[in-house]
Amino acid sequence: MKLTDFDFDLPEDRIATRPARPRSSARMLVAQGDSIADRGVMDLADILAPGDRLILNDTKVIPARLNGVRHRPGKDGTGTARIEVTLLEPRADGTWSALIKPLRKLAEGEVVEFSPRLSAVLEGRDEGQGLLRFNLKGEDFDAALAEAGQMPLPPYIAARRPADEADKQDYQTLWARRPGAVAAPTASLHFDERLMAALEARGVQFTHVTLHVGAGTFLPVKVDDIAQHKMHAEWGEVTERAAAEIAATRAAGGRIIPVGTTALRLIESAATDAGIAPWVGETDIFIRPGFRFRVADGLMTNFHLPKSTLMMLVSALMGVDRIRAIYAHAIAEGYRFFSYGDASLLLPK
C-alpha cells in the first residue's frame, strides 16, 4: 500500500493542546462491528464485559527536554550558546543518545550546563544524534533531571505552547512506575481513579506490561511504499505473570484489549502460535494492513496523525475503508485529536 492511502485532512482546531478535565470526561468513539456510536470514556465500564482484560503500559515518562548553555573558552572570555536537548535513551556505555539543537554549535568535549547541579559533555555523534555523558548518575541524576527537565510534549503540541507544570501530571499515566519513556502511552491518559473503580466493579481485569515509548514514534514516514519503512526499536517486557494472565483470560473466553498502540505492539511482539509467552527485548514490529493479530481482540486508542504508522496499525485492525469512515465521522462530530485528544474504542468483527 502507498503512504497516501493513510492521509486525511484534519482542521487545525481539532488538535488538542490540553487534556479533558477530569481525565475520564473525554469523549470516546465506539466502533463495534459495523456501527459507530458517540460515547464517553466513562462508558467504558458499561461497554466491556466482566472477564475482559485491559492491557496497560506502565512505562513512566522522564522529563527528557532540557534547555542549557554551552560554555566555550574564547579570545574574549567565554563563548556561550543556548542548546536544546531531548534525551532519547541511555546506552550501555553510560552515555545518553539525544537530539541536540543546534548540534553544529557543539563540539566534542564541550560542556552544556542545564542547572547548577546538572551538566553534560558531548562525547560523540551517531547518525545525527549527540552522545552526552552527564556529571551525575543514579538517584542523583534522576533528582537533578526532575528539577531541570520538562516533559517532552509531542511536536504538534510543543509548536503551539511550551510545557509547563500542569504537563508533569497531565502527560503521565495513573499507573506509571518504570521510568524510560520520552513519550506517553496517551490512550492511558484518560484513566483516573473514578474510571478504574467503575471498571473493577464491572469485573474488568488489568494486566501491566512495559514498553518504553521512544521519540521515534513521532518520526514521519518518508517512503511512498510503506513496506519499505523501517520502524524504530523500543524496549519492552511482558513478564511471566502478565503472559499467564492474558492466557488465562483467553482460555476463559474474555477479550484482550490493549489500552494504546504501545501495549498492542508489545503483546503482538510476544505472541506465539499458541498464544503469548514471556518476552523482553527491543521490538521494531510494524503492524500494517495484512498483519495477523494473534493476541489483541480490540484496541482503545486516541486519534492519530495522517500518514503515520499508527494510522496503518488501526487500519490493520479495522480495515482501511472502515478507518476512513471512522475518522470522517470523528472529524465531522468535532472529536479532539492526538495525544491530549479524545479516545476511540475499536472492536473489529
Which structural class matches the secondary elements? alpha+beta
CATH fold topology of the largest domain? QueA-like
Taken from the alpha-carbon principal axes, the silhouette is globular
Q: Major sheet: order of its strands?
A: 5-6-7-10-9-8
- End-to-end separation in angstroms reads 23 Å
What is the fourth-level CATH superfamily of the largest domain? QueA-like
**Radius of gyration, taken over Cα atoms and rounded to an integer in Å:** 21 Å
Mean pLDDT value: 95
Can you characterise this structure?
The chain is of the alpha+beta class and 349 residues long. It folds into two domains: 239 residues, QueA-like (3-Layer(aba) Sandwich), CATH 3.40.1780.10; 84 residues, Thrombin, subunit H (Beta Barrel), CATH 2.40.10.240. Helices cover 22% and strands 30% of the residues. The protein has a six-stranded antiparallel barrel with strand order 5-6-7-10-9-8. A five-stranded mixed β-sheet has the order 14-3-12-13-17. The longest helix is centred in the last third of the chain and has 13 residues. The protein is globular and about 65 Å long. The chain starts with 26 loop residues before the first strand and ends with a strand. The model has no long low-confidence stretch (mean pLDDT 95).
